[in-house]
Amino acid sequence: MAKKVTRRQGGAPTISDVAARAGVSAMTVSRVINGEARVRSETREAVHAAIAELRYAPNPAAQALAGASQIRIGLLYSNPSAAYLSAFLVGSLDSASRSNIQLIVEKCERDDDHEAEIARRLIEGGMDGLILPPPLCDSPAILSVLAENPVPAVAVATAREEGPVSSVGIDDFHAAEAMTRHLVDLGHRRIGIILGSPDLSASARRLEGYRAALAAAGLETSDALIAPGLFTYRSGLEAAERLLDLAEPPTAIFASNDDMAAAAVAVAHRRGLDVPGDLTVCGFDDTTIATTVWPELTTVHQPIGDMSRAAVELLLEAVRARRAGTAFPARRLLLDYALVRRKSDAAPRRPGRRRRPRA
């Protein structure tokens, strides 16, 4: 039964008045006015009846603004790297503002139940699509919810080449291979690597690229030179200590992100080692931390801001296609990466000889 509504005296009816008369939300009224398909026929009829009864006339300027802001995108995050997350949010917000998209940012705890709960709540709340930056890009719980509720979604920085949702990323394998090959070309033969989170597909691909470069150079991969990490600064400290405690420590450490590389530099300094005089350290991502530590990090530039912008644009296409009733199959976009050389790498020192850091 329609709800009784008392309109304010002397004022023109508002969208809230229509919503109250029809017994629906203001968002539903807005969807009916803008001709969206995702409204049940009986609901649409109730809204039209309320509009007629109240003689509601949408303000053209307000209607245009409301129609432009109808696309609502949820961005779920749970990233241990503040520098990565900052770059990602800046890119997402920039693209969303230019496209008049309402971006709702939600934090997820690293817990399957909580991840599924947040994703389900956003979808049930009328979200048009979801963006999943790492580590949620590979979350089995969220992907399971999306399989049950076919809402458009884009996973960012996943290394999965196929899947039910679209994705944006770089070629993690070849990027890690290029960095490892760079270290080999400098003359390093004992190259340690600090891995990323084991539940992320990108971590595995970076390890594969590292192994491939060593194999191509005729070098054996030593398990002792592979240290676990979690993409956090603290895990980088522990991994660097482990590598440098070896009887024959590496002359170079390649960390799977800049936070862990910065931690490796801190461990080297604490031990009285010169970087890169005694130890070369390289990272991955090219976040702000790469240029705020000393020496500045040689790293793989991953275009985080561009990746998040591309995710918003890809999701916008998918939402529009869905509203038009046309198919929009999952797509995978690969953006370019680059090896950025700064001050933290150099050739290994020859025994008995002191080396000057590269100018």
TrEMBL record:
Identify one Pfam family in the record: LacI
The protein, known as: LacI family DNA-binding transcriptional regulator
Answer whether the UniProt record assigns the keyword DNA-binding to this protein: yes
- What keywords does the record list, in alphabetical order? DNA-binding, Transcription, Transcription regulation
The residues covered by the HTH lacI-type domain are 13-67
Q: List the SMART domains.
A: HTH_LACI (SM00354)
Q: Does the keyword Ligase apply?
A: no
Top-level taxonomy: Bacteria, Pseudomonadati, Pseudomonadota, Alphaproteobacteria, Sphingomonadales
The record's GO molecular-function terms, alphabetically, read: DNA binding
